[in-house]
Amino acid sequence: NLYTAFPGCEKRQVVRGIPDEFIRRLAGMGGCTGYPEMETARDYDSICTSIDTELYKLLAFEMLEEAGVFAAVNTMLVGAIKDGQRLQGVITESHTGREAIMAKSFIDSTGYGDLCAHAGAEFTVPNDYACCNSFGLANASIDDYHAFLKSHDAVGQVCRGPRSGEEGKFVRMGAEQLNIPGLTDEARKIGMSMITTTVHDNYLMYIKCNYTVPGSVLNRDDMAKAEIQVRKNMAKAAQLYRKYVPGFEKAFMARTSPSMCIRRGRLIACDYDITHEDVIDGRHFNDDVFVYGFHDMAPRLQIKDGGTYGIPYRALLVKGIENLYAAGMMITSDHRAHMSTRNTVSCMGQGQAAGTAAALCAKNNCGSRDLKFDTLKQTLVDNKVYFEE
Fold it and tell me: What CA–CA distances, in Å, run from 145 to 81, 149, 175, 319?
């Protein structure tokens, strides 16, 4: 919750369960800062959890292996098998060939809503976000970046935490009102953000370039052209850092997003559509599956009194289709509300809720709307999901 924006507001961790287990394990690997408190911009964010994306991917696979999950990577979903309104299977293509995978319950967390679309779900394509690709910059010290911003009286977002095994080091740094002829204008042209994070010395893990795709994020050719342009923009961003930031003269790109990163593809119609008022008024429902308290439009839009709102079970149920859940950035039509529900930790919470529900439906051989909510909630509580009283 955004406790630092509201004097006297209680500090509490509201997303727990598997997301918290994941972050704690990642921190143990040296791939995450954990939950250090922000020093500045405290009306926007209370804590900063910086992530090493490569270790994040490794841990995700390790946890899948531990759970006995069959992982089919390098596999494309190309169709759905239905009986009336009931989803029975998916059709995939891979180097192995075409296959049909049958199951009792399904979750679409593709981001694009591909399974929902193949299954005949109602959807729209709002195209109301810029894509957001990031890269890692090596031979670049966040301490040098701080000194650069300080010399221009432009230090904005600041957080200190564990970095390369040492506590109390800069792990997040952002610029405010940086006005340097050449740099400012060129950065704006390529959508480059002046905020970065890290958990390693001499490495900025996260520098993003926003790009609004001309056309559609669902169109292959539009996205191919956009990705080429974004890669040019990222190379230009690295060049700008080398040119303008003392100490960055030998910096280079060490990591890029593997493909274009969208914030929303298809918007899937679900049994309930979370509204802007639900979020900022801190509303809870009798079928909450977890609670959440971050809004990416703060401080302009904040959840009332530093509180939380609930994600109802029915907001994950794909309208008109049985045994299919939508989890992640495909839900919530109002752009303002979506600026909260689409965020990473919210998607993690949705994932645990949808995964638990799907597993219970399969175990009990029942439909997603026949699942007893009391059973679902108790299972979530048993697995350390937090609920507001």
Answer: 53, 6, 10, 48
Closest-CA residue to 211 (of 137, 145, 135): 135
| Separation between Cα atoms, residue 87 and residue 125, nearest integer Å | 23
* Pure H helices in the chain: 17-28, 53-66, 114-118, 142-151, 183-189, 220-244, 276-280, 335-341, 344-364, 373-382
CA neighbours within 13 Å on the CB side: how many for 91?
8
Q: Are 86 and 320 in contact (CB under 8 A)?
A: no
C-alpha dihedral sign at 88, 94, 95, 97: positive
Q: How far does CA 151 lie from the centroid of its chain?
A: 33
* pLDDT tens column, 11-45: 999 999 999 999 999 999 999 999 999 999 999 99
- Asked if residue 208 lies in contact with residue 192, where contact means CB atoms within 8 angstroms, the answer is yes
**pTM (2 decimals)?**
0.95
**Which of 290, 312, 380, 328 has its CA nearest to residue 13?**
290
Which tokens in the block code for residue 28? 């143990």
Residue-by-residue DSSP string for 84-139? TTEEEEEEEEETTEEEEEE-S-EEE-SSS-HHHHHTT--EE----S-EEEEEEEES
Which pairing describes strands 252-256 and 324-326: parallel, antiparallel, or unpaired? Answer: unpaired
pLDDT, tens only, 167-195? 999 999 999 888 898 999 999 999 999 99
DSSP 8-class letter at 317: B
Relative to beta strand 106-108, strand 324-326 is parallel
Q: How many residues does the chain have?
A: 389
DSSP 163: E
